Each structure stands twice: as structure tokens, then as C-alpha cells.
Amino acid sequence: MLSWALTFFILALIAGLFGFGGIAAGAAGIAQILFVLFLVMFVVSLIMKVVRGKSPM
């Protein structure tokens, strides 16, 4: 998931560099959504490990 967010971020940077503002904005939006989704899933998995009694790290 994090790799997809990074991929869309790099795509947004390249598109912005070449002047494709609409594509850059779309890719940046997708990257933000994927990154937030990754963070939510990471926090949920840490909470589930603590609830089950396992060490989170």
C-alpha cells in the first residue's frame, strides 16, 4: 500500500515538472488517500496486536 502511495507521489512530481497540472493533482490526491489508508491500517494492526497480548514491535 505504501509503495503505491509512493508511486503516485512520484508520478505527481513528474507530471507537475512537465506541466500537466490536472494529472499531477489527480495523482497527488490518490497518493494522499492511499497514504492515509496505510496509516489507518497500520494503527489498527498495532491496536489488534496489543489487544491480543502480543508485543507491537
Topology:
Layout: H1 2-17, H2 21-52
Helix pairs in contact: 1-2
Concise overview:
The protein is mainly α and 57 residues long. It has two helices and no strands.
Describe it for me?
The model has no long low-confidence stretch (mean pLDDT 85). The protein has one domain. Helix 1 runs antiparallel to helix 2 (21-52). It is mostly helical. The protein is 84% helix and 0% strand. It has 2 helices and no strands. The protein is rod-shaped.
Number of helices: 2
Give the uncertain stretches in residue-range form: none
Query: What's the helix-strand series?
Result: HH
The Rg value, from CA coordinates, equals: 16 Å
Our count of domains comes out at 1
Overall geometry comes to rod-shaped
What about the largest sheet?
none
Proportion in β-strands: under 5%
Highlighted features:
single chain, rod-shaped, mainly alpha, 0% strand, 57 residues
